[in-house]
Amino acid sequence: MTPNPASKKYSCIIVEDEPIAAEILESFISRDQELNLVGKCADAVYASSLLSIHQVDLIFLDLHLPVVKGFDFLRKIKNPPFVIVTTAYHEYAVEGYELDITDYLLKPIPYERFLTAIGKFKHLMEAEDALLEISERDYIFINSGKKQVKIILHDIFYIESLREYINIHTKTESFTFKMPISKIEEALNPKMFTRIHKSYIISKSKIEVKSANIIQINGKKLPVGRTYKPFLEL
Asked: Keywords on this record (predicted)?
């Protein structure tokens, strides 16, 4: 940890098995006073350890890691931080959409391109920091640009994730915000809401029909993800 973490706003780790690439990233990170590098490692096992020790906001992730590859590592993380992929290959963008990758840095990484990726990350983080202000447990305020939207929790049917956006479907209308579904999941009362799929959070009280694989809410049939079935208590 750095001696003065108060001056650093966002914690990050580097997961990179090429020493030179890791050094370049570390050098770039050190130029930004809002980034706090809390660890670097060369494989997914050590990366998992770092994530268990530190509250991490951002991972710089090489895809070609020894033993466990980058995307396989990401799939195993529940509610992963933001991820900026570092790779020497072009062909992973489509697969990354499923995992909400913030940006791709193609090696060798130019500093200006690094700055662009960090700008995207900070935009998302700053939006998140202001997005969820829970003043009481029966509603939330979500900041969208310069306006605040008040959403009554009991009005929510379900929340749907679409890449880097979420749609909150309520009794009156649907609201779209740019944020990961994991962030709003953290803010919702688990007695009222539950995650049933990587792309869906539902209101328990709004369930009309349920089975092992499908839950129906407001006439909409939503899939139950295989990884969520063991934890699903409705």
From this structure: Phosphoprotein, Plasmid
